[in-house]
Every structure is written in structure tokens, then in C-alpha cells.
Amino acid sequence: MATITNTKVFLLLHLLIVVVGISLIQAKADDAKLRETKMSIYFQDNSSGGPNSTVVPVTGLAGKLWSFTEFGTVFVTDDPITEGPDPKSATVGRGQGIYVTTSLDGLNTHASFSIVFTNKDYKGSTIQILGNSNQFEAVREYAVVSGTGKFRYARGYATFETFSFDSSTSYSVIRCNITVCHY
Ligand SMILES: *[C@@H]1O[C@H](CO)[C@@H](O)[C@H](O)[C@H]1NC(C)=O
Ligand SMILES: *[C@@H]1O[C@H](CO)[C@@H](O)[C@H](O)[C@H]1NC(C)=O
Ligand SMILES: *[C@@H]1O[C@H](CO)[C@@H](O)[C@H](O)[C@H]1NC(C)=O
User: Fold this and answer.
1) Ligand 2 contacts CB of residue 124 (under 6 A)
2) For 73, which of 66, 84, 87, 154 could close a Cys bridge (C-beta 3.0–4.6 Å)?
3) What is the number of H-type helices and E-type strands within the chain?
């Protein structure tokens, strides 16, 4: 009985070594194909509060004013993304997702959104952005945690900086620089 068990353990170990060996070879082959892509794109962000706003508070703490600086406020966003800062420049896609003010002092925001590409090169592909940053810093950095289509297995980072802001209309153009490694 003991011998049979030992044989089973030996076989299992052997199998494990073979499997680990194969996946190491696989990982090596995949690493060789990893590519880096960098891009600068521009989010057209309308937070006027009117019907054509592209970022809207949808819930928050009862009895509090739902705002960017109020802990617990949840925003949904669907910003057009363009190739240049001019809103009329070529469309790249949309920035769709949620922001939540997640620090009690109202400084930090948690972002989880997708860049949904609609332009020729990347149409149908997405990049997933996730993280937490101080929304009042000149440069906000988030992680790129994954992607789909041409960005499968993507990982990297994205910086956001306000390129222009019109306080009379609450319209901002935000430059987003993305560096991703993907296959
Ligand atoms: C922003 O939204 C407001 C309200 O919906 C709208 O009046 C305004 O034209 C929009 N601004 C731009 C630049 O699209
Ligand atoms: C919202 O956008 C639509 C389509 O561009 C436009 O017809 C409408 O006048 C805009 N509404 C406001 C309040 O700006
Ligand atoms: C973003 O990229 C532009 C060039 O496209 C560069 O001028 C700018 O400094 C970059 N911003 C950051 C925060 O790296």
C-alpha cells in the first residue's frame, strides 16, 4: 500500500516538474513578443452639470452635496477622446467608467474606466485604467491593468494632466499619456 502511494506521489511530482517546465518555456516565448505602445490622447470633459455633461454624479452620501470634493460621491463618465486637444480633431474613442471620491478629506479619487477605441487602428479594443490619485495634483497617475483586442494582457501606466480648463463652462481638455506593454 505504502509503495503504491509513493509511486503516485512520484508520478505527481514528475508531472508537476514537466508542467512547470513547459510553462517556463511558454513564458519565455511570450516575453519575446511583448511590445510597448505609447500614446498621447485628449479627453473632452464637460462637467457643466447640464444635459450634455460627460461626467455626472449619480449617488453620494444622504444630506451632502454630491461633488468632486465630497467623500462618497460616485460619478459616471463618458468623455469623447480625440487625437489632439481641439475637440474637433479626429476621434479616438470614449473614456467610459466611474470615479468615486474615496478619501475622507475629498482629495483622492478612485477611477475605474475603459478607453474604448473607435478609430481605425484600434477599433473594438479597450484599455482598462484603475487606481487612486490626488485629483488636484498637476499630474495624476493610474495603472493600466489590462485590455482587450489589440491590448490583451496590457499592463502599464497612464498620466492625466489638465491641458485647458474653461471655468465659465466647466469644460476641460485633459491630456492622457499611456505607456503599455502588450502582445
Ligand atoms: C457642455 O454641456 C452644456 C450643458 O449640457 C452645454 O450647454 C455645452 O454646450 C457643453 N459644452 C461643450 C463645449 O460641448
Ligand atoms: C446637447 O447636444 C445636442 C446634440 O449635440 C444639442 O442638439 C443640444 O442643443 C445640446 N443641449 C445643450 C443644453 O447644450
Ligand atoms: C505627455 O506627453 C507629451 C508629449 O506628447 C509631453 O509633452 C508631456 O510632458 C507628457 N506628460 C507627462 C505627464 O509625462
Assistant:
1) no
2) 66
3) 1, 9
Look up the pTM and report it. Answer: 0.84
- Burial class, 155, CB count within 10 angstroms (exposed 0-12 / middle 13-18 / buried 19+): middle
- Do 180 and 147 form a contact (C-beta atoms < 8 A)? yes
Compute the distance between CA of residue 52 and CA of residue 179 in angstroms, rounded to an integer: 31
**Contacts from 102-111 at CB under 8 Å and sequence distance 24+?**
102/71, 102/132, 103/71, 104/71, 105/71, 106/68, 106/69, 106/70, 106/71, 107/69, 107/134, 107/135, 107/136, 108/132, 108/133, 108/134, 108/135, 109/68, 109/133, 109/135, 111/142
Q: From the CB of 46, is ligand 1 less than 6 Å away?
A: yes
